[in-house]
Amino acid sequence: MNSDGTRDARGTHANPVPRPAGSPEMPAAPPPPPLPTGTPGLPPRPDGNAFLSWLRAPRPEAAPGVWRFKHTPRPDEEPEAVPGRQLLGGALIAFLVGWLIWSLLWNGYLGGWWLVPLYAMVPDSWAPPGSYSSVVFSYAWYTIIALVIMVGVGRLGRWGEVWRRYGAPRFRQPQERQVVPPPQEDPAAWPQLREAGAVEAADRLVAEARAGLMRDVDHARIMRAWQGVRSGRHSLATFTGAVVKDGAAACLHPSGERDLPGRLAQHDMVTGQVRLGAAVDDPRNPYAYRGTGLALAPELLATSLLAVGPPGSGKTGGVVWPIAESLCLHALAGRAAVVVVGAAGAGLGPADAYDVVVRIGNPESVYDLDLYGGTTDPDEAAAVLAEALVGDLADPHPGGDSRRSTTVLAQLLGPFRAVHGRFPSVPQLRRLLDGAPGPLGELRKALQDAGQDSLLRELDARERQLGHPGDVGSVLADRVALIDRPAFAGFFDTSGQSRPFSLRALDHPVRVRIDLPERGHADASRILARLVLAQFTASVAVREDRSLFACLVLDDATGVVTPEAVRGIQRLRSANAGTVLTLRTLDDVPRPLRGPLLGATGCRMALSGLTPWDGQDFAEVWGKEWTEARDVTDRQIIADSPAGKAWHALRRVITGHAPTARAVTVRQVERERWSASELAHGVPPGHAVLSLTNVRGEHAPPLLVDLRS
């Protein structure tokens, strides 16, 4: 404050203090930063144009196995292609012929008849000789005649094909233009919801997609929920309320996940396909498949897939994991349930990609495996367990089974469950199968006290068979001893103190990975693999909701293929389920079962490095086809006249060969699609020969596929 009561204006913006003359000017204050457009600390919102472009991309109907995303159909038959040298030579010769004809006409060597139409159509009053108009009419006529000659020789010389083959590709620049279909056909506008009256839900989904908040899994999951509304499993009001409330996050998977932690393969959730590679541009492939992407979908996997190839051929990384990744995405969308079985550390994806991870033999495993598949029926539990324990010892012919082993197990499981209310643990089952007097005596006394006479007869029959020649109880006990090891002491618990996983849960879209302890426990791993396969085939057959696709992916099926397993695989197609099996060689399958196994699987894959005897089995199942064979015969020409002999002698001196006449014979013959030698030596590394069949019976012939493209 000044002495007169006024306020000093120094330092205020309204009346700044004047600077002394010659003092440097102060820099201007920087402008304030722009206001934030989103919540601080969160990443920017994605753009929805990429998702809309993906959703609106064309997916035409195609043959089985063709990657439909932006697919351009090709004709079934290969058009006749003229060799490049012949095509260019013919075009040049046609040009020279046209030039010669024009030169002869212009210079008057062919007369002036070609000018008669000009004189007849143009009177002298229009174009007096020597006038400007006569020159114009004359050169116009010359141009017409030159164009006629050019068109004629161009058609003869195939100039159009020369341009399409060599000229157009150099000037063509790929330009993708987003085409927005009309609202009634635009999948991004959800027309099916609008037709049913769920306009508010459709508007919410459109807004979410445009804002970049929707993913491909969200779209597939909501479409799956909408199918439930149309089939009557869900009400329209419930569906509309969930979508209006949660938008793209509606109808979530029980895990709450909307995508996998990472993806390695290309997926198209609209068609449900996963891209494995591309069909090679090879004459052995049908023309419609050459150069196209090759993909698998649940409708193909429902016929089961068998892949055979030596270690390092790409079974796990190029086939098993892409399929497992695709099925996990389908599970998040509510479309599928998947169980992936393999050795620990086999590269079957991170644990975060699964809902349940069973690490058998690992003390840190959260989940256990139910030895009896979650059933309460002793006979069913005995059948599944007998298949797992001694299924590989049954008669390998297609009619073989393990009914005797099933009967022995049922004679023990039924009485034990009636007494204890549960099935026996692994140590208890081993003692019962060994025929130890203590456990059998205790079980008999408990049955007598409960008055279970029918079950006592079962136990009496088991005791009479003990020690007799041919009794399978000792064999079963030896096999149970393989999983009654200290490494598995905390597993297969039946007392209810652990968290056992049962394949009865395949009624829900669950993602399961089971790690087998192959190191040091190879025989136990084979038993457990057979157990999972037997439980899978038994569980999917009694599901209530068969619209949910169920798939078992078995990374190594060595020792798993049994007569009962082949019969179970044959029944999966009608239950909307399938299996994916890989083998190092068909020698891991008993000889009588190789043909039935290849016949039970609709999709068969032979990878590079196959042995000739394995290739022979594939060649037989793929059969033969009619093809055109060309036989070329060179016949020596003998001259009779002196002039002809002199000419032949001159030709022999120049060419070094006797004059011959070539005869070509074309005939139809039946040959193998792929021979055993071609499969063993003609498949490059990183490639495979794959045949496909879908549930409707449509099939694709054996195709040479590059798994790395």
UniProtKB/TrEMBL annotation:
The keyword Hydrolase does not apply. It comes from the Bacteria. Residues 1-50 are annotated as: Disordered. Coiled coil: none annotated. It comes from Streptomyces capitiformicae. The chain crosses the membrane at residues 92-116, 136-156. This is ATP-binding protein. Residues 17-46 have a biased composition (Pro residues).
